[in-house]
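Students often ask what a holo structure prediction actually looks like on paper. The answer is less mysterious than it sounds. You provide the chain, you provide the ligand, and the output is a string of discrete structure tokens encoding the 3D arrangement of the protein together with flavin-adenine dinucleotide.
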Amino acid sequence: MGKTLKDTLLGTLVHGEEVLEDIRVLRKVSQDKITEGNEADARIAPLHAKVLHLVVSAIIDTGKNAKVIRLSGTEGYLPPFEAGQYINLFTEIDGVRTSRPYSISSSPRQRGYYEITVARSACGFVSDYLLDEVKVGDAFTANGPAGVFRYQPVFHSKKSLFLAGGSGITPFLSMTREVLEAHLDRDIVLLYGCRNEQAALYHEELGAYAEAYPDFRYHLVISDNVSGWTGETGFLDGAHITRLVPDYKERTCYICGPQVMNEFCQRELEALGVPEKRIRRELFGACKNIEKEAGWPAELTGGEVFHVTVGNRTIEALANEPILVALERAGIRVNVCCRSGECSLCRVKLVAGKVFLSKGMMLRKADEQYGYIHSCKAYPISDVSILL
Ligand SMILES: Cc1cc2nc3c(=O)[nH]c(=O)nc-3n(C[C@H](O)[C@H](O)[C@H](O)COP(=O)(O)OP(=O)(O)OC[C@H]3O[C@@H](n4cnc5c(N)ncnc54)[C@H](O)[C@@H]3O)c2cc1C
Ligand code: FES
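The corresponding structure tokens follow.
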């Protein structure tokens, strides 16, 4: 066979002949591998399991309206994860199969189990179930570990600023534990906004870390007016950042907390001149009060019931609930993972009708062009027809 242009160019390079030889050997070996079967698949499967089979091995009450649920693998093995990632836990409550993502709060160096920390949520559904009903020995399935809210050494500065609110502390706990346990070369400042000291998850552990490790600083900022509290007060904002973290412009900033806090902190950082590429935000699920989001149709209260037609079935859906929830209530299964508009797994095609798309939905251009939407972030504002 004659030489290709690529071969000719490679041949002119120093060591080019060796590279060409490597390519020839690789081609030969890969041919052989193909005939051997799916060895690559067999190796990849345990690292990216389609379904995790988990059992509750311990429950620890934090005494702060939140519990740590320790989940072990029923097959004695759990895939590795990166600190900051989450699992999407499936539940069946009163006949409704649904799921919720939870950040893994344990360290990735601990491979025997994953711990999630579930906080009580106003008008909660799955969180109430996990906090009040679940016991040691209960079995669950989950998908993940997933998510991009993590430290990426190629892009991110070694200096980090963590801005946490409420239960949004959980991914930071995993990141902090990993860095400190492994003595990684990172410098972290954590500002944690909470109502009061009693509500601050892991406050004592974080305080102890700050005393023991000079490269980890921690400040709790409380918003309630509490007599006797001598620490930081108010809502976590730009003034706290400039005063407590004067080198904030050298840091990669990570935000995780309730949606209002996420958006507020992002604006504060932008006002301080932190470029967008230095700000990482975790998504914390569907919007609680979608009727209050900018662009919501003024004539709708959110309590309206519309019809969603899927194939030959028509089901009822509340305007203020994502279409995904209506499908789950009706027992219609949709692939799902982040429930925050990021992973695309829940995409459906909108054939007819109108939906309100909540902000934060990361729709691919092609999906947008062909009428796909993410059902976890799409709210029916008329009768609609969709294709799964
Ligand atoms: C990446 C990520 C990580 C997260 N990490 C954590 C964490 O570490 N800790 C934590 O506490 N939270 C975490 N969350 C939030 C968590 O996923 C849940 O949203 C939270 O626990 C509250 O769940 P909930 O079901 O109680 O309430 P919501 O998620 O607010 O759900 C309530 C909704 O459930 C639906 N619902 C109510 N009743 C029914 C019914 N009978 N049938 C069907 N649907 C019904 C309704 O739409 C209602 O509005 C995370 C979220 C994300 C996206
Ligand atoms: S579940 Fe990830 S985009 Fe909807």
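The chain has a mean pLDDT of 92.
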